[in-house]
Design a protein that fits this description.
Number of strands: 0
Strand content: under 5%
Helix content: over 70%
Radius of gyration: 20 Å
Shape: globular
Largest sheet: none
């Protein structure tokens, strides 16, 4: 991996670096990627907290099937997930959602939905591991002291699992940040409309603008590395999948 990173820096033309940083298309891709990936991460966390907790604490018929279904987006190629999302939000329920003003296909909403669909399973897996790591006797002691289940969850479970949860959020954000396949199928690859940084790399490579694509790739790589290292440094979070 280190050799690949060094290769990117050696191949780039640094004279074009500052020029590309001033490019309006680059500014759009950075801003668009940041807010869509952050929103997708928040939605993933809201999904993963109840799902991870239920999978960690409850035994019910079909648990293995549910757990397996949640794993499917992790092992499927993102393009396949994108095709499934396109059919679901297009021919199947597209007209119904449009009547409610919720156009998903080839729209900004589609970008967020695709990022959420791909990233949420990572959050659920890491959140479940975080809840599994807690000594359940501490929760039972809190119940004997008169805490309600909701208060036990807020006052005991969440604080004890916070490092694992923060690590899961980090991995989820990183996955949403680099999402491409499902996004391309559901939201399209339209310049200055659904153009994330990954889409910008694809669009500019397809027209032969390798320097723009290279600079964008380096920015994505360095941003992800810097934030992940900084986040782990301050939180001490450990992530296991």
């Amino acid at each position: 991996m280190l050799m690949l990173i060094v290769g990117l820096f050696l191949f780039g033309e640094w004279a074009a670096f500052l020029e590309i940083l001033k490019n309006p298309e680059f500014h759009f891709a950075v801003t668009f990627t940041l807010w869509t990936s952050v929103l997708a991460t928040l939605l993933s966390a809201l999904t993963a907290v109840p799902c991870g907790y239920i999978l960690s604490r409850c035994n019910f018929p079909g648990k293995i099937i549910m757990d397996t279904l949640l794993d499917v987006p992790i092992v499927l190629p993102p393009l396949v997930s994108g095709v499934a999302l396109l059919i679901f939000f297009g021919p199947l329920f597209g007209e119904s959602l449009a009547r409610w003003g919720l156009d998903i296909v080839f729209s900004t909403r589609g970008v967020v939905v695709a990022q959420w669909f791909i990233a949420a399973p990572f959050a659920i897996k890491t959140f479940k591991q975080a809840f599994d790591s807690i000594d359940i006797r501490l929760e039972k002691v809190a119940r004997t002291l008169g805490y309600t289940p909701c208060r036990v969850f807020i006052k005991v479970t969440l604080p004890l699992a916070k490092h694992g949860l923060l690590g899961g959020i980090t991995m989820t954000w990183a996955r949403a940040l680099g999402e491409f396949g499902a996004t391309a199928m559901l939201a399209g690859v339209t310049r200055l409309k659904t153009e994330t940084l990954s889409v910008a790399i694809f669009l500019n490579m397809s027209i032969g603008d390798t320097q723009f694509a290279l600079v964008t790739a380096i920015i994505m790589l360095m941003t992800a590395l810097f934030l992940l290292i900084l986040f782990k440094f301050f939180t001490g979070a450990e992530v296991r999948l």
